[in-house]
Amino acid sequence: MSYLDALNYILPEVALTFGLCVVLIWDLVVRSGRRWWETGFLTLGFLAVTAVLLVQRFAYPPATVFGMVRIDLFATLFKLFLVVATGFVVAFQLADRNSGENGRSETHFLLLCAVLGGFFLVSADNFILMYLGLETLGLSSYALAGMAKRSVRGSEAALKYIVYGALASGVMLFGLSLFYGMSGSLSYGGTMVGVSQALANGQVAQVAIATLMVLVGFGFKLSLFPFQWWAPDVYQGVSTPVASFLAVGSKGIAVAAMLRVMATTFGIELHADAGSEFTSSLSALLALLAVVTMLFGNLAALRQTDLKRLLAYSSIAHAGYILAAMATLTPAGFHAAALYTLLYGLMTLGIFGAVLYFANIAGHERIDGLHGLGYRHPIAGAATVVFLASLTGLPPTAGFGGKYYLLTALWESGHGMLALVVALMSVVSLFYYFRIAKALYLKSATTEPKKMSMPVLAGILALLAIANVWFLQFGGLLTGVQQAWGQLEALIS
Question: For the chain, what is the domain count?
Answer without folding.
Answer: 1
